[in-house]
Design goal:
Length: 152
């Protein structure tokens, strides 16, 4: 009996072309990640390659800008890696969900106690009760040194 992978990889499978395209993109994405190296490779993903265009997703505007700076090098790398002479353009898009789905650990962000004091001060000057309460909750979570702002 054939496994699911063997069935998907079989040329008579109606999804065969799609499976091969996914494998092609996955291998190219891995090679691109190795080429770019960390940390930038953790913040972008190859979406597709068409006749003349690469589409890359970045997880934030910061990484979008860094990728834009490297766009000519990325095009040249994929041209060489895949032998795609017609490839001349790159289209970058921001996908904030990319960082949530990559399985990597999130970086912890910290707020100093001085910032917490400022938040309490802002809360005291805020007329909107719901907003005041939100400022106070955020300021209350601080320890003497830091507050962890990571959501994960």
């Amino acid at each position: 009996m054939l496994s699911i992978t063997e069935r998907l990889d079989h040329p008579e499978n109606p999804l065969y072309e799609l499976v091969m395209q996914v494998k092609y993109l996955d291998a190219t994405n891995k090679a691109l990640a190795e080429y770019l190296g960390p940390p930038i490779s953790h913040h972008c993903r190859l979406a597709t390659i068409s006749f003349d265009t690469i589409v890359l997703y970045a997880d934030s505007p910061v990484w979008y800008s860094k990728l834009r700076f490297l766009s000519h090098d990325i095009v040249r790398f994929i041209q060489a890696y895949r032998g795609l002479r017609t490839l001349t353009k790159i289209r970058l898009q921001i996908d904030p969900l990319l960082s949530e789905n990559d399985g990597s650990e999130k970086r912890n962000l910290y707020m100093s106690s001085h910032v917490a004091k400022l938040l309490r001060s802002i809360a005291g000057a805020t007329d909107n009760p719901a907003l005041r309460e939100a400022w106070l909750r955020l300021a209350h979570n601080t320890s003497e040194e830091h507050i962890n702002l990571s959501s994960g």
